[in-house]
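Problem 12. The chain below contains 537 residues. Write out its predicted structure in token notation.
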Amino acid sequence: MSSTTLLPNTKPAPDRPTIDHSSDKATRYGVLVMMVVGLCFTAYSVWRDVDVSGGSSESILVYLLLAIALVIALGFEFVNGFHDTANAVATVIYTHSLIPNYAVVWSGCWNFLGVLTSTGAVAFGVISLLPVELILQVSSHAGFAMVFALLIAAILWNLGTWWFGLPASSSHTLIGSIIGVGVTNALLNGRTGTSGVDWGQATTIGEALLISPLVGFFFSGALLLILKFLVRKPELYAEPKPDSVPPLWIRGLLIFTCTGVSFAHGSNDGQKGMGLIMLILIGTVPTTYALNRAVPNDFIPQFEQTSAAAAKIIDTKAAGYAITGDPRPAVTAFVRDHRLDDGVYPSLAALITQVADDVRGYGTLANVPASKVNNTRNDMYLTSEALRNLPKVQDNQLSPDEVKTLNRYKGALDTSTKFIPIWVKVVVALALGLGTMIGWKRIVVTVGEKIGKTHLNYGQGASAELVAMGTILAADQFGLPVSTTHVLSSGIAGTMAANGSGVQMETIRNIVLAWVLTLPCAIVLSGSLYFVFSHIF
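Solution.
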């Protein structure tokens, strides 16, 4: 029997692109140099910001913890790059639209740009899942334990699933890690585990993570069928020919979709690292990063105006009730438990008045004394979170116009506390972009070879990536984290089903298993690490 004769019940392997060769020395050294440059730029940026703000000198231990935490946070984004972004390049690689090395560099560059142009809404949407008391005390020992636990847990699970070539979700992993920290923190403080997480926000994010793969599957399949009906060009739906590139117009379409998914991934996933880095910076050098000192000159008059309008509404709701003592515990309990009792409105009214008096007294956020920065930031953050949750509870007695007024004031508070310096975006973008260029092969092979029973064709690749790009960009506008991995891999499965090609059920089962296990495993990992770290720090 000749070597080319097929055995019974076998079929030829799909035409596989050359992806097994090692990176050349120039590429490896280039990536290493860029890593060193990025870390040096990070250190310089922190030193410059502290110097410009006139921040007080911190101990060597604090700066050591800051350095370790920043390296771990950037490591999370680096792993995210080769774990999630590999999905974006799989289609152009397996349709011979781009050489693998060119594809990952191209994708890495567009991830970089996606991060730089992101809004930050996703970053703080994810962070709001954390227990409010940990965010308010992020500079405490518990704050350090929280940051290290959730970051290390997320990295460990991402590396584990990457090793086995499973397209698991970094977003899913990070959210599980946050829930684990929140539940463990509540238990350590004598409360029930369910009180340690903002379950309303968790439900919203969970729905986005659950629905987005279904959107990927059904919309990608539907788009392929529409494409086949409208564009009757057989070469678009044919298996790529060995050692040949597709027609120019098909190649351009696939490169465009790869570009869009890479950009969308950067704009969404990159924000998670930004939010974590801001928590780290606020916890270690609050004098510099707790408040946005770069607000424009006209911000304070606008802040005072929106504050007065909000205070008038809350004072009306608090009429007939008085509060003595510190209003913060009552507002904190409301943010944590979402229970509106008689003390919430008067306490919130007192807190709004306190914030307004502080801002008016200092004249500008840049003039807030170092000793008062943490308190002012915490009061602003606590007020903002209370206003975010207030419209969601029953019997809030707020009209739609009053909610709009309170939201305008909340926006002013968020401008003061929820900001991301440009250098943070740059280093996160660099970590995500470099990660895209390293370690991408395992996930690419799974997406390109192990989801469908036939070779991925041009139309399938374009349909899956167009839907993934649109889904991620839409989620970004609503401040919701979604999984590039789940949307794209389910999209490819959807096109295989719509095309009648069939899917490899073993791979699908493994992906679903990873999806099911990610949340509980991340919860257990981060909760266990938080328990250990809370007894070390």
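Discussion. DSSP finds 21 helices and no strands in the chain. Students who got a different answer should revisit the alignment rule from Section 12.3.
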